[in-house]
Write a structure and sequence with these properties.
The protein has a single domain (24-316), classed as Aminopeptidase. 30% of the residues lie in helices and 14% in strands. The protein has 10 helices and 8 strands. An 8-stranded mixed beta sheet has the order 1-2-4-3-5-8-6-7, with helices on both faces. Helix 2 (32-42) packs across helix 9, helix 3 packs parallel to helix 4 and helix 6 (226-237) packs across helix 9 (298-311). The two termini are 26 Å apart.
Length: 328
């Protein structure tokens, strides 16, 4: 259903009496151990690489939906609870917080939760990094790609629910079908009036740093001014800690990462939609059987997720609006 106004889509299901959530400190949400816990859940061998449409992918979707329930974010009307069905490719997992004074304006935080499964399902058998693989390992756990990003979305959902500063409506989504060609994000993008979405922050592979400073990079910096807004916010918050350019330019421009992740179906519709990452597409663990939880840097992840939360606060509160995508 393609809606002309976001108000008709963002109707949250509420049951019972609202209860004030017990305060949880921000430090615990962004703590390396919290992020590690969620990565371990999603990248466990029992989920067999979360191949879209598999029964293990459905299990992963249920895990994420349970975390959304614990966060206190609500399902969106028109979906099956927290699930946005994609047919044989499984389900996007999606929930939100209805905005206050600017409810018709939406900020999206996203990451894909699917991966390439096992050696029997991998659609790219001749690609991937060359990290050492143990004999007999057949599971592409996808810890960095992209359990790391999903753990960030879960943490952000919990954070913004507790902060209660969302003048705009917030949507948190874990996409399926990314590895099959951005299928989950393409479908979701088709369900929204583009002008209703103020920005989409996509999070992809934040568990290992590149050879640069270790700061994250943002894809497609010249298509909107989102990167400038986020960096300005961090600089104003703590110039000593973050400097003027915490979110760096994409150092892998030749790999067209802007068009290879779930931000792109939204950016194609002129929505300011960009991906935050830390990992090279040439990383030795990329699409490698040894992309497992023990290979991730959880202190790095903690630092990045906290920066995303702080830098997007002005978007959430309705104080900044990025320019629309241009040049595509």
């Amino acid at each position: 259903m393609h809606c002309t106004r976001i108000f008709f889509l963002i109707i949250f299901t509420v049951s019972g009496i609202a209860v004030k959530a017990q305060k949880t400190y921000t430090d615990s949400l962004f703590h390396p151990d919290s992020l590690k816990y969620w990565v371990n859940l999603l990248a466990h061998d029992s989920l067999k690489g979360r191949f879209s449409g598999s029964k293990e992918s459905l299990t992963a979707a249920h895990i994420i939906s349970q975390e959304f329930i614990r966060a206190g974010i609500k399902p969106l009307a028109g979906n099956e609870g927290y699930f946005m069905p994609l047919g044989k490719y499984g389900n996007n997992v999606i929930g939100g917080l209805q905005g206050k004074s600017l409810a018709g304006q939406v900020v999206v935080f996203s990451a894909h939760y699917d991966h390439i499964g096992t050696t029997a399902t991998n659609p790219y058998p001749n690609m991937g990094g060359k990290a050492f693989v143990e004999d007999g390992d057949e599971i592409y756990n996808g810890a960095n790609d992209n359990a790391s990003g999903v753990s960030a979305v879960i943490a952000l959902a919990k954070y913004f629910k507790q902060m209660n500063i969302h003048e705009r409506t917030l949507i948190f989504v874990a996409f399926a079908g990314e590895e099959q060609g951005l299928l989950g994000s393409q479908y979701m993008a088709s369900q929204f009036e583009p002008d209703s979405i103020v920005a989409l922050i996509n999070i992809e592979m934040i568990g290992r740093k590149t050879a640069n400073s270790g700061n994250p990079f943002i894809t497609g910096k010249d298509y909107s001014d989102l990167q400038k807004i986020l960096n300005k916010n961090l600089h104003q918050y703590n110039s000593k800690k973050y400097g003027k350019g915490f979110f760096e330019n994409d150092p892998f421009f030749e790999h067209v990462l802007f068009m290879r992740s779930d931000n792109y179906p939204f950016a194609f519709r002129k929505i300011p939609a960009h991906t935050i990452s830390t990992t090279s597409p040439l990383d030795e663990y990329y699409h490698n059987l040894n992309d497992e939880p023990g290979t991730l840097d959880y202190k790095l992840m903690s630092r990045i997720v906290e920066a995303i939360a702080l830098s997007t606060t002005s978007l959430v509160k309705g104080e900044n609006t990025p320019t629309r995508i241009k040049g595509l």
